[in-house]
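Intended use. Records like the one below are meant for learning the mapping from a protein sequence to its folded structure. Do not use them to infer anything beyond what is encoded.
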Amino acid sequence: MNYLLEPVIGICRFSFCGNGDWAAYSAIDADTDIDLLRLEQAERLYDDARMALRFHLFETFLLPSLKAQKDPNFVLIVLTSDIMPGKYLKRLRALCESDARLLLIVSDETTVHEALMPEIKRLNSFLSRPLVQFRIDDDDCLSADYVRELRRYMQRLGDMVPIAYSRATGLVVTSYAEDEATHVYRGNLPFHPVGTAIRVQGDRTIFSFGPAAMLKRFQAVVDNAGMGSLSIKIDGHEGYPFNINDPMMRRTHTSVKDADLSVILSKWFGFLGDKDEDRAKALFHGVETAAALVAPSRPAKIRHLKAV
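Structure written out for the chain above:
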């Protein structure tokens, strides 16, 4: 088989209400009522303000980055739950129907694994080896050459299975209210979650393993070339807050100057705008709009705008 013709499988959980890496599921035991827990989480997950933020980031950053891929041979599974309110499900369905490469799965399962495996098995049917899977969150985006570079590395590795991949370098954009500014950092952190990929056999998906664990458990490739992703960190972000004063962050992240930002956006994130000067503005505007959705009292245009 010509492996250049293999589609790459991307997986994005869009407000999937179930056992994944949500903190609420970290301490469940045999006595936990999973259905009740799921309904309790749904109240928070499908809050109007939260959904406005998720759709804004999904539409402003992730979808444009997918449509701009230099290698268009991929399928992105967008996983959500059947208990998502109808108005949001209708909107999500319309977005996915706008691109044949977006495959929406609306599941009643309570775990990511059970929700994904039927479709993963179907996509792998009749192939001599499993397809490569990568993960991406709905509030991050990929560089325009991500799929192309992933395929190049996996092609060189032939039939090696399992094999994990990390595009270690990317941008991190922060816009916290207490900072009163938007900051841009260049990060190099192997096997951070954004854009991590794996080819693995059996009834397993990329969400069967923590990103850092893949580096320890499997043969792995770290690609330090170029930029692989762009992550957005704002108040209320569903993850650890980014703090450049944290010792590990200081070792792995450096400030990006204005002139360098223009070059980086033009080369790897050109989908953010039509001209070099517009791309930085588009980036800041998109991030600051997201920050304002989290804190409505905060104006969309922050008092001090700068890439440091």
